[in-house]
Amino acid sequence: MVSKKKSLKQVMDFRLEKLESLLKNRINPYPPKFQPKHKSMNILSDYDNYEGLNVIVAGRIMALRKMGKASFVQLMDDEGKIQIFVRNNDIGDENYSNFKLLDIGDFIGVEGEVFKTKTGEITIKTHKLTILAKSIRPLPIVKEKDGQLFDSFTDKEQRYRKRHLDLILNPEVRETFQKRSKIISSIRNFFDNQGFLEVETPILQPIYGGANARPFTTHHNTLNQKLYLRIADELYLKRLIIGGFDRVYEIAKNFRNEGMDRNHNPEFTMLEFYWAYSDYEDCMNLVEQLFAHIAKKLDSFYLDWGDSKIDLTKKFHRKSFFELLSQATGHNLDDFDEKKIKLVCKENKIDMKDNANIGQMLDELMSSLVEPNLIEPTFVIDYPKLISPLAKLHRNGNPNIVERFELFIGGSEVANSFSELNDPLDQRTRLEEQSKLKELGDEEAQPIDEDFIQAVECGMPPTGGVGIGIDRLIMLLTGNRWIKDVILFPPLRT
User: Fold this and answer.
1) Distance between CA 144 and CA 340 in Å, rounded?
2) What is the value of pTM for the model shown?
3) Which is it for the CA torsion 58, 61, 64, 67, positive or negative?
4) pLDDT value for 1
């Protein structure tokens, strides 16, 4: 730990002197290998079977009480912390002298016998101690007393910038990312068992598409070609359905050159799956099954949300886009009357650009007035065609409505789905309409992807497709409210 009376340079210089002493004593402070055989949590949770046994553990020193001829160490491995007892009579005077050159932050390997101290704390009595890595830069000062932390490493900005320190000093952060890994693993397990094929599609694309968003651009020197980081993998996955794979999925990194807030990050993780011969109704049922599967794997069927709990075991609500808008505004807007929609925006103090189209206004009304209140799992179904250029027209015959749903939980969009448009003539018309919107100033409108249209012209079966934001899903399932808290290394201002 850094003493308040010493500068960082003084502390680091002192540690370098200790390192030099170890080297003079012919101790390699950075050996190539060590083989721990036991974990702290196993020993602590099953003491009766470990009492008196010889164990081998390894980890980082997190607390150190050096005394004359005996010392106590708090050792942290990737599962937890355990107390280590070190005495010169047990490891020898020379080894104990080298041990006294250690600091908080150093890595050690310990072999010894499991016992309980007089105060009842499970401890390892050291027979052999190996120095594995001498730390030169001290950790931030964190004090612990009676289970409470003081001067903890809690500054958000510093935590994101120094994620390695965040993981060392805040065990709940490690738990979040361990749970993230478990959730993604359970998703793969679910789709593999459902007969889906996991695939990989290009990140660098000559034409971006599959969503309404601004892309990042780059340049390929050898090809002398402008390329885009993908905003979605949808159009490539549909090519695979056309090519004869009936069920495909991808867990992919996507990139959108847009604003950053509680729910948005320019680099994010998406699950997309496509299922031939299905529709958005089938996809709703499958998404419900997926959530139940994940909840079972986590052994957690309820999400804490404020003073209430969100029940993942119940059937999700299903409500139409215009039904919800009508309830929120007091107006029926499914006649697509532009003047009325503008008036409703004005009534609700929603600022829109002068050239905003009907679809953008409806989308903003939904985002502002409805979505934040959708706390219980809710499928919002049957969207306007204007904001769904890749979805099939509704089978009820309404030419302005498509078969699409978005799933909202805790006021956030978690999933987006279509009965996919497989009519190549309609698809071309819609992408041409998007292109016109782009010319009129809509920077998020999609360009025409001629190769994709030609693929659809070869014939695409009826297909249901779903995109699920993995990061937002992790936020929900880990109780985090900011997307940066579930991304290991979020982008930050320099």
Assistant:
1) 61
2) 0.89
3) positive
4) 46
